[in-house]
Amino acid sequence: MTAETLSRKPARHAPSTTPAQLGLGEEPAKAGSGDPAATHVRAKLDREIRALLAHEAGTRSGVDPEDLHQLRVALRRMRSVLKLSGGLLGPGAEPVRAELGWFGQSLGEVRDYDVLIGHVREVVAEFEVRDQPACRALVAKFVAERGVAKRRLTRAMASPRYAAMLVNLGQLARQPDQETAAPDESTVDVQTAADLVAGLAKPHRKLAKAVRALPADPPDDQLHELRIHGKKLRYAAEMAKPAAKKKQAAKIKLLIKATQDLQTVLGEHQDAVVAADRMRGVLASVDGPVGFVAGRIAERELLRRAQARADWPGIWADIDQAAAAVHEFKQD
User: How far apart are CA 144 and CA 238, in angstroms?
Assistant: First the structure.
């Protein structure tokens, strides 16, 4: 089970904050192929803010881990959008991106425990009955640690800093009466809707460069970095798709699918690496039945890691082919 597909459908909660409170319209903003690039950036931020708000109350309550996951995905997409083309929105974009990074750290800590706990429960469900008391003790250890991280997250979400972050996000996402050029055009890579599509070449080149730089047996952290590069390409493609003409949008859709596949398999790899490391930590501090169970889990995680390492190169080939098709279409 990956970090992308941990839990059931999240429960519905009344939003803690509404789009109207942030100055956004009743309906999500839209942008078409003829609109300026800044309009697409604002529309993307508008959609992701609404996604964040939709899962805010569920994240606070902690009833379903999927709420926190979906809120974190929305936050990551906004950070990627602002990294790629935040200069179009003026000097306020970079401080907001930094605040999203601050909040993301609190979310990430809890999310890592959610993934670990969910996966360990799934694995140990297959263990013998006589091992189940030790399995429950191991899970309880991680649940307690998660509780500490969740309390830190709750404090962050109750802070004035978090409230100010939401207000500033809303200000960035509001569509002005008329878009103007970026305050400093030299600081951004895109100015027009067509530039959003052409701009896919940059994150693709960075991903390709990272792939070429890998040794035959890459260290775990390098494959994690590769996943981050792939995610940036995916988010850039998601923003570019509404700006593209119909046929090119179809090619971008294939690119998005391929990057999603890479994110999934390298997510499996990273989850396995983290879980194996956690089990090593348990083995260093306990022995007996709990240590025995942790060792069995660690062995399975190393097998999962090996499978992901065998799978990702073929998916990278799909990404490279899909990206080439997008660029070739532009030249026709």
Answer: 37
- Domains belonging to the chain, first-starting first, are 25-172 (1.40.20.10), 193-332 (1.40.20.10)
- Nearest CA to 234 among 209, 260, 269, 208? 260
110, pLDDT greater than 60: yes
Contact 239, 40 (CB under 8 A): yes
Type and span of the H or E element at 157: helix 132-157
Q: Give the confidence band of 212 by pLDDT, cuts at 50, 70, 90.
A: very high
Residue recorded with tokens 């200000």: 171
> Using CB atoms within 10 A of its CB, is residue 62 exposed (0-12), middle (13-18) or buried (19+)?
middle
Instruction: Give the separation between CA 158 and CA 164, rounded to whole angstroms.
Output: 11
Cα distance between residue 213 and residue 222, in whole Å:
10
Give CA–CA dist 86/76, Å, rounded. Answer: 14
186: pLDDT strictly greater than 80: no
The per-residue pLDDT for range 12-48, each reduced to its tens digit, is 555 578 999 999 988 998 887 778 888 889 999 999 9
- Contact between 216 and 271 (Cβ < 8 Å): no
Distance CA 62, CA 43 (A): 29
CA distances from 155 to 86, 148, 160 (A): 28, 11, 10
